[in-house]
Design goal:
It contains 1 helix and 14 strands. It is mainly β and 169 residues long. The protein has a single domain, classed as L,D-transpeptidase catalytic domain-like. The chain is globular and about 45 Å long.
Length: 169
Amino acid sequence: MDLEVSCKEGRWQARFGEQVWPCAVGRGGVREDKTEGDHATPAGRWPIRRVLYRADRLQRPETAFPCDPLQPDDGWCDTPADPQYNRLVRLPYPAGHERLWRDEEVYDCIVVLGYNDRPVRAGAGSAIFLHIARRDLAPTEGCVALLRGHLLEFLRAAPRSSRVRVALA
């Protein structure tokens, strides 16, 4: 069973079985031709690779997916020319990167999606996650975001075969 992300009556929602939750997508909308830095969420169906979480703020999520605690020096490379592009890196890292250990709660639980990873295509977009939404469901930088309780509920109920499917608006 997939998490189905779509726009209904001008609002983004995520459907999982009978559950329907509000969600956020990238401020650049949803695109089939995602590129690095466009702030768009890629349309398509993406496998869930693993879950990362802040063990100092959250108990290990109940989930069928591989799950590991984040470390303060975790980052994600977003420099297309770098050999570690769209991969987890340890900070400090010499190329451009996103810090995963943040003061705000949006990355307290990160579901790493299998977007642009097998193989990695330089410039096709990086760090596409399912993560915790801001309380006002503000747009993301290109990820999909659910409110904390909904994200944890999804992880608890989702079988290992689940994918995240994002439809064009």
